[in-house]
Amino acid sequence: MNGGKRDFPERFQNTVGKPLDFSVRLSDYSHFKIGGEADYFFCARSPHELKKAITLAREFSLYHTIMGGGYNLLFEDEGFRGLVIKNQVEKIDRQDKELIRCASGSLLKDVLEWCAEHELGGLEFMAGIPGTVGGAVYGNAGAFDEEIGDRVVEAVLYDKSDKDVRISREYFSFDYRYSSLKKRPDVVLEVILRVEECRRSQIEANIAKNMEWRTKRHPPWDIACAGSFFQNPVSLEGKKIAAAQLLDRVGAKGLREGDAMVYDGHANFIINRGHACASDVMSLASELKRRVKEEFGIDLKYEVIHVPARPPSR
Ligand SMILES: Cc1cc2nc3c(=O)[nH]c(=O)nc-3n(C[C@H](O)[C@H](O)[C@H](O)COP(=O)(O)OP(=O)(O)OC[C@H]3O[C@@H](n4cnc5c(N)ncnc54)[C@H](O)[C@@H]3O)c2cc1C
Questions:
Q1: I need a labelling partner for 188 at 20 to 30 A (CA). Which of 26, 64, 255, 258 fits?
Q2: 105 and 197 in one domain?
Q3: For 72-100, what is each residue's pLDDT tens digit?
Q4: Could you identify the atom of ligand 1 that is nearest to the CA of residue 140?
């Protein structure tokens, strides 16, 4: 075991009140089904566990990261030389007539179900986006020209000084697949989302319509992937261009590297056909980037988040 100070596990048990898991295969926790072993792994199920785990990792200067559902992540074949904290802190309740409060580990699908039960609409665009509220806010997840950032009113973060801070929407500087969390070590604890009163039947109809759209285009659930691989580039005139169309035009569909392959039904999905390694995915992605750059002069940016095995050197 390398990457942690020797008495970290014992201190963890004493401080958090639960043991760490050791040498955990990250492929079991990512929808891409890729990733070697994490030295330490912990599923946090309460705000106390989540905060204590983060504070202790910081105290030990131990490399660590937080994950939600693992639907947007590419872990390395080498795994993770430190602590991976999986956020499973779930709670959804009403804050006000048209405001709901979600713990950051709540699954988007549970939020939608809860909203339908309580006849609160406005979030149906998220139907079929897998993952947690925290992960969605981090990457400003969206679909059908709507984004979760449009709905965020305020949030509570665990900041770099180990303090809970309540912040308003502006803090996040939301943009296409971007929030300021990408530049800060803050962890989202809870989020207040704006919703509207709406009949349950209408919410369910909206969800069904959006799910049908996805089912036709995206890989089925049992196919390992991490969602759209590249972001849609924006033209000089500010218009979004579908990365899938560019990829189609450079003959991406069917290209493969080992068990990593461009999905037949949608050129912006790289799928794992069984035993793909992170290195297969990255070399396929580089080839796709190269072709698009050569043909259109456009630099595709990754939407999938690559999690380095070791802290990036400064
Ligand atoms: C089949 C499929 C379809 C998809 N469709 C869409 C789509 O239509 N639109 C879209 O936007 N995305 C889509 N995605 C991608 C993915 O669902 C989203 O990015 C989602 O928001 C990821 O949430 P997660 O909880 O799984 O986050 P993870 O993948 O676990 O983590 C993503 C990032 O968020 C950070 N993070 C997680 N929780 C917190 C927290 N509490 N505080 C701070 N940082 C945190 C992590 O450190 C990591 O950097 C799709 C993925 C798949 C597999």
A1: 26
A2: yes
A3: 999 999 999 999 999 999 999 999 999 99
A4: 11
